[in-house]
Amino acid sequence: MVARGRPAVGLPCGRVGTMDGMNLTVGFDLDMTLIDSRPGIRAAYQALSAETGTFIDADEAVTRLGPPLEEELAHWFPEAEIPAMADRYREIYPTYAIGPTPAMPGAREAVEAVRALGGRAIVVTAKHEPNARLHLSHLGIEADAVIGWLWAEAKAGALREHGAQVYVGDHVGDVRGARTAGALSVVVPTGPCPEEELLEAGADVVLPDLTALPQWLAQYVAAQPA
């Protein structure tokens, strides 16, 4: 396993929570962290384009996953139409996007590793919460809590509320959310942001992908004061 970034075996000053078994809470982002949502989102955008007659470059859109839906729709629709288009996209999303979307390699094992250490795994995502729950249910990924509609620094409130010591994501927005919450920022460069950009944003640890998380997490927990 290769983990890069700041030394992160200890809980840095000001980080929330403690590390005695059941008090361990790890947060996860969803898109491009736990799930490869590109095939499903591409299909949903293509369906919305066909329905509205508005050109949407779905292949380009899926290179920008992470920020809220409305930010992407602003590339294709006039501002006044965005709320209605966002509502319609979310309505058709389950039909087109759930089935084609696979789990990222190691996603189930990463969540299960948190539980094996006596902890809780939560999902904090910018995605429409009901659709986030559908993805997890479809893929058999069991989270202790799912909190949607939160992006970047706004994720900090949910992370604090649940006492998350670690937040795992793939985007600089996830790094900002973790750091605002006082949680350790662990990232995987499996989304649109390369490793260098994630480190520049302040990520504490970079793992190659989620398959490396169980070993890293076990070492991290073992290093905490009793």
Automatic annotation (TrEMBL):
Entries under Gene3D superfamilies matching the protein: HAD superfamily/HAD-like, Putative phosphatase, domain 2
Keyword Flavoprotein: no
UniProt keyword terms in alphabetical order: Hydrolase
Keyword DNA damage part of the UniProt annotation: no
Top-rank taxon: Bacteria
InterPro entries assigned to the protein according to its UniProt record, in alphabetical order: HAD-like_hydrolase_sf, HAD-like_sf, HAD_2, HAD_sf, PGP-like_dom2
GO molecular function, one term: hydrolase activity
PANTHER family associated with the record: PHOSPHOGLYCOLATE PHOSPHATASE (PTHR43434:SF1)
The name this protein goes by in its record: Hydrolase
